[in-house]
Design a protein that fits this description.
mainly alpha; 7 helices; about 90% helix; disordered N terminus; Plasmalemma vesicle associated protein a; transmembrane; membrane
Length: about 350
Amino acid sequence: MYNSGYSHTKMGLAAKNLHKSKERSCGYYMRIVLFFSSLIQSLIIVSLVLFLVYGEPQQTVEEKRIQELEQSYSRLSLENVALRAKEKNLTLFKFVLKKYDCSGLCMCFAFHRLSVRRRDPMGCLVQVWLDLLLLYMFRLEHFQWVCCHLVKTYSSRIKWNMSTIELRREKALLEERLDIYEKKCKEDFIKSLQGIPDVTKEFLKRVDDLFSKHISFQLTCEKQSLQLENIRANCSSLSSEVENKLQLYLDKVGSQITQTVGENAKCLTENKRLNEDTSWCIRNRSEIIEGNKKILKQTQQNNDKEVEHLLLDIRKLNANTNLLENSLSVKNIEIKMLNDKVNDLNAKPGVNNDMK
């Protein structure tokens, strides 16, 4: 080909390159995209921090526990009513049976008395007394059975009442625990996580607005347009992927935070219950101490009175003992004097002969 030394005119794309310096470069659009991507990353980090502070509500365990307690309470009530009905029927049946036995026994006694009267009229009175004694023993046994049955019924009634009170108390504590749990989870955690889908939607909207505003710029490089389309697709897929993975992570962390909040509510209710028990124990202790002080004071007074009476008795006994010792010493002196006189009389033989 012929190539001259003169400059040739540039046609086509070469002519467009003269105006390329006046257009905005690809780095400008990349900076905008990176700015929005950093913005969404910061929003995601803030959402994660808020999620780590609060938890997701799970009320199934407490509700199941309350339902189980209600079912057990209703079942115990029905069993109590059924047992009382059976007990009444059994008591009535035993009473009727005892009545029939008593009537049969009385009839046997009557026939026996008639036969005894026919055979031995003289022993009728003794037999009547024996029959009355036997009837009295039967009545006494029946009375003892009724008393024992009443005691058992009263003890079972106290037991059922105590179990009912415990179930009601546990139900109230669980309801309070559930209220605390709902307040912690609903008011704090749910409201704080409502902005995550809004953030992703706003991010996608901003990306779409960005490309719609700058679509009027006819990029001369096909690679730049393809790169921007790839960036747009990557941003859309990134937002959906981040939202899905974030939701999974939120579910996992939410279960842990829910467990922590539940344990906190349980500790609060247990603390309240223990405080109530402690206050009751303190009141009961003070009452017991006051009662023991009164009993101790009364016992000391009674003991002082008894000791005083004993000391007076001991004093009287000591005085009587001294009197008896003095009288005994006087009697011993008199006995000694009499013995001396007797010895003197025995020592004089002339006197004895004269007396003879």
